[in-house]
Amino acid sequence: MLPFGSRPTPRPACPFCGTAVGRPPEGFSLEDGEYHKALCTCKAAVGYDDSGVRQGAMLMELLVFICGGDWDRALDLDEADYEIRHLEGYRAAEHRMSRGDVRAGSSQGAFLFVKLAAD
Ligand SMILES: [Zn+2]
After folding, report:
1. Could you give the 3-state DSSP secondary structure of residue 18?
2. What is the largest CA-CA distance in the chain?
3. Three-state DSSP class for 93?
4. Fewer CB within 10 A of the terminal residue: the chain, N end or C end?
5. 63 sits in which H/E element
6. Distance 22 CA to ligand 1 centre (A)
7. Based on C-alpha coordinates, what's the Rg of the chain?
């Protein structure tokens, strides 16, 4: 329960287009890889990490995902070929973002969004 008078914090949304992000793993697939992944309507790949700390490995997986599983194409991508956005401080139990500071090492989840510049 929220304390009386406090407003709920926002639900997670795509930083590129503002589309609401579904509750992971609902709407998120785990085939081919270890991270929950989904595709936004704006073609951004969305990855979810419940620990919020392993985003390097997740980035590689999202690049392959956004390239349709084509590792060669993903490995050829230059940093100028894609854009990255982070959404940290996700509280899965409430499906809402945290307000204010997110403590490092906290158990809150994080979303990583990757969009190809060509799209
Ligand atoms: Zn989007």
Report:
1. coil
2. 54
3. coil
4. N
5. helix 55-66
6. 12
7. 15
Q: Residue 5 C-alpha to ligand 1 middle, in angstroms?
A: 32
Q: Does residue 10 sit within a domain? A: no
Judge whether 3 lies within some domain. Answer: no
Pairing mode of beta strands 45-49, 36-39? antiparallel
pLDDT of residue 111: 94
Domain region containing 40 = 36-116
Q: What pLDDT is recorded for position 50? A: 84
Position 27 pLDDT exceeds 80: yes
* pLDDT tier at 5, thresholds 50, 70, 90: low
* d(CA 106, ligand 1 centre) in Å: 26
CA 93 to ligand 1 centroid distance, Å: 23
Q: 112: closest CA among 32, 5, 40?
A: 40
The confidence band for 9, taking pLDDT boundaries of 50, 70 and 90, is confident
Rounded to two decimals, what is the model's pTM? 0.85
> Could you give the CA distance from residue 42 to residue 72 in angstroms, rounded to a whole number?
23
